[in-house]
DNA sequence: ACCAGAAGTTTCAAACTTGAAACAACTGGA
DNA sequence: TCCAGTTGTTTCAAGTTTGAAACTTCTGGT
């Protein structure tokens, strides 16, 4: 017997499902206008940028950005064509490929990040109390702790 | 001068961005296995099903599911080919099209819904306290209240 | 009644994503 | 050493999403 969602859960689920649908779309649209790339491409660049050497293997980057291998391969091809990342062979294990953020990629991030952050603030944090921000951090961390949603 | 995200906001943002990326993917994959349709197609059927006459216009359905007109048009074409919805002209305003969930569509929902609900519970609610569920409902409703994310 | 503009929907071409299959390189046990 | 199995990545074909442009129908002002 399946247990249905109760009233409180439903009151959380309906707006949450709306958020996971509409939030990435809103971020996507803005980033496409400003940088010509989708939101998760931006996430890939930002993830590389957070590394000391701006470098990760394809597999690590796929895991960190919750991307399928196939999707990441296509994405990196696109980013490489625009000159924002480069691929390099891993000398120790020739199956692997390194991906490195280029200077041009870093410049793109530097240019786009301020407006992106402002957008995030507008969409998510502007109307939440400091208390709610802390609650959200707790809740979101708990949800992400689920194996299927994959720990970053 | 752009204000950067503070520590608490960052602690909320990182897992939240992970959720909006990974949660729809997880729901998608399961629904593709069980029903052969993506998650937002399921959302369209469920939205129609919640109506007394199982009917909405294309525009209303697009708004309720946060879909672009173009995307909805393609989606409804696919759902129509599988026999789960039908289009009908609106007699009062011939620009509009009604979309109605068929019996076959309702049967699909009835068949798939229990496992889908269980999945949602697994991914989101299983580890949250009742208090956190209420907090999440508040927070999510506030975020969805933002105009750009569109009220349902 | 006319007609400019608005509203609702679909079509178009290009881009992105998907799972499965193919491919290449490493690993460990016989 | 050999070779089955595993791991990391790319290719393939099919399906989905996108914004813009096209199309049809309605509305309000003249």
What does this entry look like structurally?
Two copies of one chain form a homodimer. The first copy, chain A, is mainly alpha-helical. The first copy, chain A, has a single domain (22-144), classed as Arc Repressor Mutant, subunit A (Orthogonal Bundle). In chain A, 64% of the residues lie in helices and 9% in strands. Chain A has helices spanning 7-35, 39-49, 58-64, 69-81, 103-125, 130-144, and strands at residues 55-57, 85-89, 97-101. Chain A has a three-stranded antiparallel β-sheet. The longest helix of chain A has 29 residues, at 7-35. The radius of gyration of chain A is 18 Å and the shape is globular. In chain A, 33% of the residues are buried. The model of chain A has no long low-confidence stretch (mean pLDDT 94). The interface between A and B is large, with 59 and 59 residues. Chain A binds a DNA duplex (30 and 30 nucleotides) through helix 1, helix 3 and helix 4.
